[in-house]
Design goal:
Shape: globular
Number of strands: 32
Distance between the termini: 7 Å
Strand order of the largest sheet: 1-2-3-6-9-14-19-22-25-28-30
Largest sheet: 11 strands, mixed
CATH architecture: 3 Solenoid
Structural class: mainly beta
Radius of gyration: 21 Å
């Protein structure tokens, strides 16, 4: 429990507490920086708000307090510690969204440069929100449960697929046109509003969820590590469009030690990027009634992916083609290489997957967990409550 010195009533009412008014916190992960072993360690490293002055460290528990803390310090180093659940549809932030355009304004949590956002304990949660890391640098997000937002007004597209589909906007977290970002030890999930609880229209589920965590528009030096991605359809999009050719040579992203469970596809789907995917654990079922597994890694247009020491535990999965797929078809496939991964306990046989080989060099030192140990190591260490944040 935090022991607070005397606090003014106005600060308590606002739900925002500067650490200038708080007695010393116990030693914890609040000021940690991105470690070696991922792209976020490059370009000078990712330190977030680790050097923040005492007055620029905040403890928040409401949307108003969170937004105020993020804006108070401008581009100065800042640490925002989140306690409990921050719901962007709470009365503190104006209540339920009334329209798509209203949601577009009030759901956004804009993160400035030189910021660490970190959950306190094991139950810090953000819901009905999009964490927006846009045109900034040096950001860390850790130890949060992020409930993927639900678009209040999905749109029917009759030309999507053979028989049409519902499409939605709003991701749990978006990295756009940004550099040096570390996303670590979080949980991303649709729960409790999973797809089987959505209403139907035109014979299809009225899909209100979009992505969980996307990286796009020339972003670089991003590490996504030790997260749990749970119960979601289109999970991670790296590069948003084949036509955005300026992404070529960018989108440098590492996925390591993440736990993907009941994720149907895009874990990740990659366009253009130099992406390293190692020691992740993928669990799914091709016949599941909800979130039926389609594939994990998608080397799409001009992707350049190195994968190694991953473990795929897929019910009904028997070949490489079941777990590695070019979403745009073979004529639009990117480059892909795998070393040492396992499918249902056996070596992943790449003979059923035909891809050209990437030719870039991984620039950082790293130590993968052997695929045979991933099923034990990753669930035990990924997600919230696995780092100390008092």
């Amino acid at each position: 429990m935090l022991k607070l010195k005397k606090l003014s009533v106005s600060f308590i009412a606002a739900g925002i507490v500067s650490t200038a008014m708080v007695s010393a916190f116990a030693a914890d992960a609040t000021r940690e920086t991105a470690p070696a072993g991922g792209w976020a360690s490059q370009n000078g490293g990712t330190t977030g708000g680790s050097t923040a002055a005492t007055a620029d460290v905040y403890l928040v528990s409401t949307p108003t307090a969170l937004l105020a803390a993020l804006s108070n310090a401008g581009s100065r180093a800042k640490i925002v510690r989140i306690s409990g659940t921050i719901d962007m549809t709470s009365s503190d932030n104006g209540g339920a969204f009334t329209s798509h355009s209203d949601q577009n304004v009030r759901s956004k949590i804009a993160v400035p440069s030189n910021t660490t956002i970190i959950g306190v304990g094991s139950n810090a949660t953000i819901k009905n929100a999009t964490i927006n890391i846009d045109s900034v640098s040096n950001v860390i997000v850790r130890n949060l449960t992020i409930i993927n937002p639900c678009d209040v007004a999905p749109v029917w597209d009759p030309d999507d697929g053979d028989t049409g589909n519902w499409n939605s906007e709003f991701d749990g977290l978006v990295v756009s046109n940004s550099k040096n970002v570390w996303i670590d030890h979080n949980v991303f999930t649709d729960k409790p509003l999973t797809d089987d609880k959505l209403e139907k229209g035109n014979g299809k589920i009225k899909q209100c969820h979009d992505g969980a965590l996307d990286v796009k528009k020339g972003s670089d030096y991003v590490t996504i590590s030790y997260n749990v991605f749970d119960s979601h359809e289109k999970n991670n999009l790296i590069g948003h469009s084949d036509s955005n050719t300026s992404d070529d040579g960018h989108l440098t992203v590492t996925f390591n030690h993440n736990y993907f469970t009941n994720v149907a596809e895009r874990a990740p789907r990659v366009r253009f990027g130099k992406v390293h995917v190692y020691s992740n654990y993928f669990v799914g079922d091709r016949s599941a009634s909800v979130y039926a597994y389609q594939y994990s890694i998608g080397p799409a247009y001009k992707a350049k992916i190195y994968a190694e020491q991953n473990a795929f535990q897929i019910t009904g999965g028997s070949t490489c083609a079941h777990v590695i797929k070019s979403p745009g078809g073979s004529s639009n496939a990117g480059a892909f290489s795998d070393t040492g991964s396992l499918l249902n306990g056996s070596a992943l046989d790449m003979s059923a997957c035909s891809f050209s080989k990437p030719s870039w060099t991984i620039p950082y030192k790293y130590t993968p967990t052997a695929a045979a140990n991933v099923a034990t190591t990753v669930p035990a260490n990924a997600g919230v409550g696995k780092i100390t944040v008092n």
